[in-house]
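Q: What structure does this chain adopt?
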Amino acid sequence: MRSSNPAFARNEAFARTGRAGFDITTPSADQLDQQYGLPSPVRDRAMTLEDVVTRTGILFAVLLATAVPLFFGMTTGALAFGTGLLLTFAGAIVGLVLALVVSFSKSVKPGLMLAYAAFEGLFVGGISAFYTLNWGNGLVPQAVLGTLVAFGAMLVAYRTGVLRATARFRKILMIAAIGYLAIGLINLVAVLVFGTGSAFFDTGLLGVGLSLVGVTLASLFLVLDFDFIEQGIRNRLPQQFAWSAAFGLMVTLVWLYLEILRLLAVLRGNN
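A:
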């Protein structure tokens, strides 16, 4: 079964079989005669963990390059709130479109991934400023720290074998994610149509429970990302696929950060 992360789910290169992503058709005798004596084509070297780490760092550097200025511009008043809000919505919409294009593309597109990181940075910076203005200072550093701790914990759990991306694990996680998405959509309709308060920001047990579910789901999706990166390295995929691995990790980590940010806001409960 494929990963539930859209960055990997439609990418056969990260399948568990080592033959995935390669054309292994046997050439005919005529084709061999034509190729005889010609120099061998230069093949892209295999993807490594260092490649994934480097490209992940590049994507996050681009994200921070747009997120940090917008965050400080909105929180210090140097940027009009309406302008900041407009940039935040633009980042969310364009980022979503670019993420879908990248995820459903059959080829690796580093340029679009970098563009996605830039627009996603606008969304992350703007939404972080919104939380800071409404729930006070200190929320963002705590969310960043929580994201790093969750990432480290999931990595240790995966490397030690405590959590493995088995078929049953993927199935249960996918069902839970669909259920969580359905609850989110129902809540959104209720807010827009009936003007009710969002259950996801409820300061009681409901809001805390939903936030904990979101953090847990996002954290567990990291296990799927680790597994498919490992399979890609094991299959000796070309170096360019490190961009796809980095993109998938960034999508999950941003999701995890936003879930932790909301959980902290709900726990603070002074909105």
